[in-house]
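Quick entry, no commentary yet.
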Amino acid sequence: LPKLPSGVDSKRCVLRMRYNITTGDFDQNLDSHANCDPKDNTCTNSPIADRNNREALTYLNFLDDPDDIYSVSFAVNTDQHSRTFQDRSYAFDIKRLPNEPKCNKKIHNLNVRGKRGNIVNVYPSVEYDFTPSDLSIESEDCIHIQWIGSDYNPDRQPNNAEGGPYNPNNINEAKADRSNFVQIEDSSKNFPLHVNKIKNPFFSDSNGNIDKELIKRFYFIDQNTKDCNNLTQLILRNPNNRQARERDPKNCAKLNAALNPYFQGPLVKVWNKGVFHFMSTRNNNFSNRSQKVKITVGACTNNCENGNNSLNGLQIFGIIAGVIVAANGLAAVSVGLFKLGYLNKLKYQLSSGRRGGQTKALGKPLN
């Protein structure tokens, strides 16, 4: 990864991706002299014979019989023989890590993919989805939840897409992408958990206590409530027109007051372990238009601020050896199955070798 110069906290970069395809039937080391002359309709400078301009050169005989009847013809189209099929440019910022939260482990990126519309509308793209949609991390890892969309999609109305804001040039059109990120009980549910009913919060402090302000930010994606109307106000302004209410720029329930389709969530340090599920309230539409994500948080295994949550075999052996030395005795140690760093079973028996006495158990077996 590129490094920021000293004293620079952010740098704008541009990534250009091109999908090129070129035939190997002609010299690759060409220059501008091989370009078509605008005054030459047959394009004789070009090494490729196009069937529209030099049709005779697309009929060739590859046999030793000189009769032209044995010629074969080729589907030669210069538009296809050497061209750029896709050319996309993306601007992005590389930023210095903030001082808080202190991320000394992995940083995971969680985004939104897809565009406004149903599966037929958006082809060859996809409908809205989180990416990755199934993410596994460790406790004390950091996650950067951010996404980008567009305000210039083709016009898509309910039930092909949700919300607004409307096109500034035509209030009857809706072209914008918006998403949010709210916790649900499990992937079969389609309504968010009320903040007071979240038993195991994904957004929490280092002690596992719920962070309601962070939840609110991902829930409402930084919309200014001064720009928002409630449903009663929306109905008064747009009577007998539900679609107009859904496109209304002051409909914050549809996330319409978000100023642009880019949402940059803060860097979040994850503390609580468990399996967490999230959805977008605006775009999640039961069936194939499901915008959900599953995040599995396992135990921290290294560089842990709260101490290592799991012990490996060598660490456990060291603890046992320390106990043995402290007891000044001999030991027969039986260690059971280790799985993901957890000790499932440990049995030990200590005997006083020097004194020749009876077997003395210093602890109960862990079953």
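second:
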Amino acid sequence: LLSARFSHSSIGIWPAFGNMGLVKKDEQKKVEEKKEEVKEVKEEPEIVKRLKETEDKYLKLEKEMEKKIQQLVVEYTAKQQPLLDERKKMLCVEDGAGEKTGTPALTGFWSKALQNHPAFNELVREWDEPVLQYLQDMQHSFVDPEDSDKGFNIKLIFAENPYFTNSALEKEYKTEIENPYCGEQKVLGIKCTQIVWKQGKDVTVEAVAKKVKGGGAKKAKKKKEKEEARPSFFRDFFRDLYPKMELSPDAKEMAQSMQEDEAPYGGEDDDDDEEKDDETLVGQLMQFDFEAGAAIKDDLVPRAIRWYTGEACPDDDDDDDDEEGDEEEDDDDEDDDDDEDSEDDSAPKGKGKGKGKGVAK
């Protein structure tokens, strides 16, 4: 019996262990084959290796040059700062009459300069303008003075105002070079000051009447209101952004409006498409925000008066040509419609779909 049991069990056990050994060998063989494939792929011709070594020496010198240029930028930024301080002083001179604003010598200076820039002309809304009247100055600095690739800061300084308690609104853009061979820059994150709005002065929301179910005249008089988010410079430009974040409904709506002209994502898995789309929307918002921040740093801070007067604004000749072209197309369409109408008028009456039977005369 024992020998019978042993032999019976061995029929089920020993082949199993034998198969496990074969599986391990097969897996190990596949791993070794993959390693060989990687070696073959990575193996480069000797001339390519030497060319890369030469280019790396060139890039090293380029990096040294960029470092020296950055030192010059820091040096001359410090020399330019007194001139920017002088500009602020001139704009803040009060004449003793009229309402106190951020730039009493030229009321609405920064608001107009902002709205003249293409990065902000659609971002600033009508209800933002009274708040921007209290904007005194714009400033910028580097996250790391020795390395401009690590990002920059911008600061919007406000005079005391009836809207919020903050004396300044700041933004920090953290970046890094994603591809050193083409200078491609990656935005790691954008951090903003939280605005502390005074009671009833938040311009980023609007009061909307709630629908009252049933009731009569009494309930109609007691209409309740709720606050809903609305587009605003102080909402859309002062929003923390970082990769793979969950977007608020208003942020998602803004991002989607940016890609209206883009083709929808294809694919078999709808869930994957939706996730990919969310990541893309965040990326678009971050890129848009980064470019707007760079516009303040590179354009508005150093050349504010030229943006105020409109001298720095890009030419709109192309837009004018497009509009003229559209008008001509509209005129052609109208002429075609007129031709069609005249053909219809000359057609014999009584045929086709006229008044049916049973219509009162």
